[in-house]
Amino acid sequence: MSGGLSEALLAALSLMLVVEGLLPFLSPTIWRQLFARMLAMSDGQIRFVGLTSMVIGLLSLVLIWR
Known about the structure:
Elements: H1 3-26, H2 28-40, H3 43-64
Helix pairs in contact: 1-2
């Protein structure tokens, strides 16, 4: 990987960790409730949430890099 690409991937990973840490830091009670709801979901529902998240992320990247 070139230096620019690996730096961009590390920056993206770092930003993802910051964003994912916001809810548990700001409101642990709501985060716990959301986590409990996720545990109650079936595998198919969780896969659909993951697929939807990936599609939204890919569409966002396409729009940003246009």
